[in-house]
Amino acid sequence: MFFLLTKVDSISTIELENKLKTNIQLIDVRTPGEFRRGHIKNAKNIPLSEINQFSPLTDKKVYVICQSGARSKLAAKKLKKRGFDVVNVQGGMHAWRGKIV
Q: What is the pLDDT of residues 24-80, one digit of tens each?
């Protein structure tokens, strides 16, 4: 499959925390149940199974997070293949040390 060869940029959760000080598009691709148990403020929940229906609000960069980084990496590859400027958050919520809501 082509998208498995697609190179996706990634950042750490510490870098993400700095990016959140500005207005970014953050997509959380975990299940709705996982999302309800705690997520980063202003993150939008779009489960991996629904990522192909995602349309970003603007042409801004899209940041993608999940629980460990595996699902978000796959989601990021799918989005990049569709032409979006996308960044995977390494380590996911497991590595996140900031506030959750």
A: 999 999 999 999 999 999 999 999 999 999 987 777 899 999 999 999 999 999 999
Tokens of 9: 């940029």
Q: Would you state the structure tokens that stand for residue 85, as one six-digit string?
A: 């400027």
Query: β-strands 9-11, 86-89: how paired?
Result: parallel
pTM: 0.92
Say how far apart CA 15 and CA 1 lie, in whole Å. Answer: 30
For residues 67 and 94, the answer to whether their CB atoms sit within 8 Å is yes
Write out the chain in H/E/C secondary structure: CHHHHCCCEEECHHHHHHHCCCCCEEEECCCHHHHHCCCCCCCEECCHHHHHHCCCCCCCCEEEECCCCHHHHHHHHHHHHCCCCEEEECCHHHHCCCCCC
**Structural domains for the chain:** 2-95 (3.40.250.10)
